[in-house]
Amino acid sequence: MEYLEKIMPSYFDLLLPLKQWKILSLRELKEEAKYTGSFSGFYKIISKLEKNMLLDSFINSWSNEKFLYLLPDGIKALGGNEKSLHINRDLRFHDSLVSKVARMIKEFSFVKDVYMDFQAREVFPLLERVPDCVASGFLKKEFVMAIEVELTQKSQDRVKEIFKTYSASKVVNNVLYITDKKSIFNSYRMFLDELGGEICKEKFLLMFGEDLRKMKSDLKLAPIYFKDKLTNLSEVFKGYL
């Protein structure tokens, strides 16, 4: 890694937000890093770090955004845990949406902290299942909400097993499932109804974020299935959002 000697130390500081969010769009990284220079200047720096194999990237063809994540040498340079921060190329599109959703939820007034999957296990060691991310905060009392972003449908038996695990959880108060596929939304809704009294249904919120891939979904207004009816987060958390 001798080439690192040719890279300005301040450039590495620009990558630190990736230790928290794992994967960010170019604009999000600039924002999180609090880089005050021009966008073109930031792009040149990032391109240099990519060329030196510290970063990899891909384009979300739905939103035309460039997303960045650390490669093993970048993780080592920042002193991160390679296993925790590793991005599977087959899952990087999903992970980019999880990061986007997590940052949106962090802006909710009643949310204090949001933890990505690799952080959640450390903060909540008794978690029965590690979700895509976890939000914690205060709504009349302290709460912990698991968040799952579903782009592909799991089998009925698997989904019901996960529902039962979350229902019995002593750590998680609520579970928010977010999907951009109506078929998944309808199927998971049916699975919830079929389980009926076997689970604590009021723990679950199912959201249909139609424009999630385009990064245009308004999570506060997207339709959700909660307590046997269709509503939205603005109604569920009225007075808190």
Provide a descriptive summary of the structure in words.
This protein has 241 residues and is α+β, with helices and mostly antiparallel strands. It folds into 2 domains: 2-87, Winged helix-like DNA-binding domain superfamily/Winged helix DNA-binding domain (Arc Repressor Mutant, subunit A, Orthogonal Bundle); 99-236, Trna Endonuclease, Chain: A, domain 1, CATH 3.40.1350. Helix content is 39%, strand content 24%. It has a 7-stranded mixed beta sheet with strand order 4-5-6-7-8-9-10, sandwiched between helices. The protein is elongated, with a radius of gyration of 19 Å.
The biggest beta sheet is recorded as: 7 strands, mixed
Instruction: Compute the CA-based radius of gyration.
Output: 19 Å
What's the total count of β strands? 10
Overall morphology: elongated
Compose a concise summary of this entry.
The protein is of the alpha+beta class.
Write the layout of secondary structure elements.
Blueprint (H helix, E strand, L loop, with lengths): L8 H5 L3 H5 L1 E3 H7 L6 H13 L3 E6 L4 E6 L1 H6 L4 H4 L6 H15 L4 E6 H7 L9 E7 L1 E10 L5 H13 L5 E6 L2 H14 L8 E5 L14 E4 L2 E4 H4 L5
Parallel strand pairs: 6-7, 7-8
Antiparallel strand pairs: 1-3, 2-3, 4-5, 5-6, 8-9, 9-10
